[in-house]
Amino acid sequence: MSIADQEIKKFENSNCAENKVFYQAMEEVIYSIAPLLESDSKYRDHSILERLVVPDRVIKFKVTWLDDQQNIQVNTGFRVQFNNALGPYKGGLRFHPSVNEGILKFLGFEQILKNSLTGLPIGGAKGGSDFDPKGKSDFEVMKFCSSFMTELHKYIGPRMDVPAGDIGVGAREIGYLFGEYKKITSTFEGVLTGKPFFFGGSLMRPEATGYGAVYFTETMLEMEGKESLEGKVCTISGAGNVALHAIEKLQQLGAIAVSCSDSKGTIHDPRGVDLDLLKELKLVKRTSLEFYIETHPEAEYIPVEEYPEGAHAVWDIPCYAAFPCATQNELNDVDAQNLIVNGVVSVTEGANMPSTPKAVNDFLSHKICFAPAKAANAGGVAVSEFEMAQNASMSKWSFEKVDEKLKETMQMICKRVALTAKDYGVEGNYVDGANIAGFKKVADAMIAEGI
Ligand code: NDP
């Protein structure tokens, strides 16, 4: 039995329904780091894996709030503080009806290695609630956020745990959460990142994950001897923070971003998506993409139910580079085959773990340049750390300074991942490179810090 199989066997009992995505993430990491475990026995001697896959603590709490009809609503809140070997816990909050402990454990686990890859002093965490901000008034969102923070504030702090946004948590929610924290603690401090700029946020935080994913892709394409993105057709899924800013940066670089999607359907606009309209629909009106074709009848809208089950319309559009930026497991093996047959050259994960394990294997075996989430979407957390640095020193950096540092960070991560893959005999495999490089740094810190 291989070392990886022996390690995975130890965790078989945790493979229950709620832990499905967490187990998926853990299994990928264990197979990836096998060459490291084989070359150095210290990681097994110190039981690093056994210690790393169990969060330091999981905080679960009740959130009660009053809706606009004066009815009492009850949701569940969570914070999974996974590992702080490298720095304070850091990771986003997700508000979505699908949120449960297993999903947050998967996201928190990925966050440990992602944060390690940035080279910045931050540990890994994730949190959120099954609250759905969709269809709620601003006042209801505020009520929910205040109640959520009434409990969460006990467990966070600028040197302890610094949450940020994720699905369903943008500047509006961060603003309300910060306001409540300030009220309860009477302190104005950098306890959350992703704050609006005029009260402590960093310039470029909203853009960071999407822009960062594109910077990573450019570097990867150059390192792999492929043509740049300029003039190339790109497909993007999602229509949220990450997708919108990936599209924006692609357009700035002269690429043709022809798609976006939400939970109800996909837009295919072969002339390039109208980003201003997209921002208006999603950020201002908070509505569905189907209204895009009202002003752009030449574009196609494909509702989810009209597409054959088991595949996604967005991945059936021929492209040079694909950017899954919506949610986990949104790109499966059927989608991967469609992309490969249509000649895709690179796939960059803007969302967390959007590709299923089979899809990833297909991309790797067909020598597609594949940028895994924990490396490619680390731009968001990197700029979050820059926000922490600005808050701590009471300073403000210019847009150009943050952009330059973001670009440098993404290039550094890409090169480090590629080099690590080469060092461990898996050249060109950015999945293994990212897992080994991210794991090694955290593991070495855990060994140095004792049990
Ligand atoms: P948003 O809430 O801003 O947007 C999410 C988008 O994905 C929405 O357009 C949503 O559609 C769509 N979506 C959600 N579920 C599905 C689904 N099942 N099928 C199709 N579309 C879906 O989130 P973000 O853009 O912030 O996050 C997207 C991904 O990126 C997540 O995986 C997140 O963890 C990851 N990420 C985000 C970072 C950030 O800085 N924000 C940092 C690193 C990773 P609808 O509008 O219909 O809900």
CATH 2nd-level architecture of the largest domain: 3-Layer(aba) Sandwich
**Number of helical segments?**
18
Q: Regarding quaternary structure, how should these chains be classified?
A: single chain
Q: Compute the separation of the termini in Å.
A: 28 Å
- Structural domains: how many: 2
Q: Which features would summarize this protein structure in a list?
A:
single chain; five-stranded mixed beta sheet; 18 helices; Rossmann fold; alpha/beta; binds NADPH dihydro-nicotinamide-adenine-dinucleotide phosphate; five-stranded parallel beta sheet
Fold topology:
Layout: H1 3-10, H2 20-32, H3 34-39, H4 42-45, H5 48-52, E1 57-66, E2 72-83, E3 89-95, H6 101-117, E4 124-129, H7 138-152, E5 161-164, H8 171-185, H9 205-223, E6 233-236, H10 241-252, E7 256-257, E8 259-261, E9 265-268, H11 275-284, H12 292-295, E10 300-303, E11 321-323, H13 333-341, E12 346-348, H14 357-365, E13 369-371, H15 373-376, H16 379-392, H17 399-423, H18 430-449
Parallel strand pairs: 3-4, 3-5, 6-7, 6-11, 11-12, 12-13
Antiparallel strand pairs: 1-2, 2-4, 8-9, 9-10
The protein binds NADPH dihydro-nicotinamide-adenine-dinucleotide phosphate.
